[in-house]
Each structure stands twice: as structure tokens, then as C-alpha cells.
Amino acid sequence: MYQILKTEGRAKRAKLTTVHGTIQTPVFMNVGTAAAIKGAVSTVDLHEIGTQVELSNTYHLHVRPGDQVIKKLGGLHKFMNWDRPILTDSGGFQVFSLAGLRKIKEEGVYFQSHVDGRKIFMGPEESMQIQSNLASTIAMAFDECPSSVATREYVQNSVERTTRWLRRCKEEMARLNSLEDTINPHQLLFGINQGAIYEDIRISHAQQISEMNLDGYAVGGLAVGESHEQMYRILDEVVPHLPKEKPTYLMGVGTPANILEAVSRGVDFFDCVYPSRNGRHGHVYTNQGRRNLFNAKYELDDRPIEEGCQCPACRNYSRAYIRHLLKAKEMLGMRLCVLHNLYFYNTMMTEIRDALDAGNFEEYKEKKLAGMEENT
Predict the structure, then answer these.
(1) Is residue 89 annotated as part of the catalytic site, yes or no?
(2) Rounded to an integer, what distance in angstroms lies between the CA atom of residue 286 and that of residue 344?
(3) Per annotation, catalytic residue among 271, 301, 302, 354
(4) Would you kindly state where each structural domain of the chain is located, as residue ranges?
(5) How much of the chain, in percent, has pLDDT values that exceed 90?
(6) Which UniProt keywords apply (predicted)?
(7) Which tens digits make up the pLDDT trace of 98-124?
(8) pLDDT at position 376 over 80
(9) What is 2-272's CATH number?
(10) CA–CA separation, 91 vs 316, rounded Å?
(11) CB count in 10 Å sphere of residue 368
């Protein structure tokens, strides 16, 4: 059940009650593609840094170790020892990212595995079956994510097929949730709005999928090459056409600034690989902007990454030490940077929720944005 607690302009402060616990929104979901956060971060760590939702990838877990293996081991929660909500994306993004290894047909998508080259078929029914085997809290509908530079004709045809696929996803999810051997018969289904940067296609698609009465709605196909201004324009146009009384999820976004701007446009679910990917390369987020710990100026800097930060890295180690670890290619350096970045994102979301509760989100947003000038 999704309940809006407060609004400020279009911004929503809400909570989503699930079988695996209540999600306070706006929320940033920490990305663990293959059932682990890259950078040697465990689910014990995720508890410590305030993670609410972990996100895993349907395609990657289907390829390895196999969703049937995970089902036999009791589902993804038990497999990775995580007792809070999990969202699984559908494999649809891989239709975009593995463009050289796939063929799209009406029935679904034929992939060549990026691991061993074997042939894989995934359509709406297969995606739902895999996600049911994983027993995630929230399953995403199977869609195609068209390129931001695709022609209008291609995007129109792609979106129409995605709508047909969504109907099949909904029917299959209802069937799977009714089976006796389903691990999570309360699995939720979110639909995905597509349409590249064509506002009219986006709005028409949003109106069509809104009528399907799904558990939540995502805006997909942004952060795939278009400018930030284009992304904000699409959100301004599309979000008002999605059901306000359902969760709104902006997929694969983004920077702290992107999140702040999207919250003010009515989005309340986010995920992005930036904090973990940048952390593994020594780039850390602070309230003063992003720092590159490889820089020589940190060689003798005995301060934490950010003074006052309560993450495990900042409570215990200096910039100089973490820089040394990164330079020496010690895994601990990556781990500490990833922990700090995820803590920074999770803490920012808490601050956003507190600001919405207090009715001063816009003031908080402007102050936060002003402080986060790029600082390398």
C-alpha cells in the first residue's frame, strides 16, 4: 500500500508498505546488479549505511547463477541474506545496453550471453517467471528502452510493443502470484513509461499504462544519452500523466543534482550505479562537490573524506590513507569509497524526506545544490 504523507508543489513524501517492510520515500535504491554491491559491500554493510531497498538485475542473475538455483535456495532475500525490500529490473535495459548481442521480435528478445555466448530468449512471460523465482519485492515489467537518438517512427513502434508486453507481464504476474509454490505471492509489478525524448509519445504512453492499475510506474529511457535539460523537460511533461497515488520511479538516475530536481517534479524512487562506480575509481561525493582522491593534494591530508560524515570510512580513516590504498590497488580503498558514496546518497534521501516533512524542501534543495559545486 502506497500512502502520501505530505506534498510540496509536485514533490511527494510517502511510504510504500510491502511484504518485506515499509519503504519511506523519496528513496535511493542501492544497486547490486548480481546480488552484491560492486566494491565488496555486504548486506551487513547496507544495514549500517541506512539502505532501504537493494536492486538486482533479472538478466544477470538469470545468466549466473541461474534463477532456478536461487529459487531452490529460497529466493533472493535468503540467498544474499537481505531482509528488506528488493527491486529487480526486468532485463529490459539489457535490450538497450547489449544492442550488439540481441534481436527484438514481437514474442521477446533473443540475446547472446555476454558471459559465454550461449543463446538466451527473454520475453514478458520469461521475465516475470525469472523475477518470480527470484522472489523480489517489486518486479519491473519487461520493456524495450529505445535509444535517445532513435527515429520517431522507431520509438513509436517500440512503445506500442512495450505496451503489448506490459499487458502480458500483468497477466503472467497474476498467474504466478496464484501458484502454490511461488515464494513471494505478494510480488508487486511496476510498469515503465518509454518514448525517448518525444513528449507526445511519452504522454500518450503514460495515459495508456495508467489505466492498467499497476502497483507503481517508472519513467525509463532517460539518462541514456540525452541532456539533463531534456530529462527535466520530459519529467515536467510526463509525471503529471502518471497516477499521483502510485509510486513514481525514475530509472537509472542519477547525480545528487538530478535526484533533487526530479524529487521536485514528483519522482520518489531512484537508482543509479554512480555512487558505487565512481567510488571504485576514487571519486567521492561530499556536500562541497565531488572529490578525486587520486589527486596529489590529498597525499598528506589527515582529514576524513568529509568532516562530520558518520559513514564507516569517515569515522575511521583519512583521505591520505584511502588515497594510498587506491594507488596501491588495495580493494579496501574501493570498498571505503563505495561505502562513503552510498552513505552520502542514503543520507541525502533522509534529508530530503525530513525537508518535505518540515515543508522546506525547496529551500533545502537550493542550499544543497549551491554547496555541491564540482570540487576535484
Answers:
(1) yes
(2) 7
(3) 271
(4) 2-272, 280-371
(5) 89
(6) Glycosyltransferase, Metal-binding, Queuosine biosynthesis, Transferase, tRNA processing, Zinc
(7) 777 788 999 999 988 888 888 989 999
(8) no
(9) 3.20.20.105
(10) 39
(11) 18
Known binding residue 145? Answer is no
Beta bridge partners of 3: 15
C-alpha cell at 269: 524512487
Q: What is the pLDDT of residues 175-212, one digit of tens each?
A: 999 999 999 999 999 999 999 999 999 999 999 999 99
Give the tens place of pLDDT for each residue, 71-91.
Answer: 999 999 999 999 999 999 998
45 given a catalytic annotation:
no
Catalytic annotation, pick one of 67, 89, 215, 268:
89
What residue ranges in 52-146 does DSSP mark as E strands?
54-57, 86-89, 102-104, 109-112, 119-122, 138-140
**In 3D, which of 49, 54, 45, 53 has the Cα closest to residue 26?**
53
The number of beta carbons lying within 10 Å of the beta carbon of residue 310 is 12
CA atoms within 13 A on the CB side of 175: 11
What's the grid cell of residue 58? 533479472
Supply 312's cell numbers.
564507516
Exposure class string for 157-166: b at 16+ Cβ within 10 A, else e: ebbebbbebb
- Annotated binding-site residue? 215: no
What pTM, to 2 d.p., does this model score?
0.97
With left for phi above 0 and alpha for psi between -120 and 50, is residue 14 left, alpha or beta?
Answer: beta
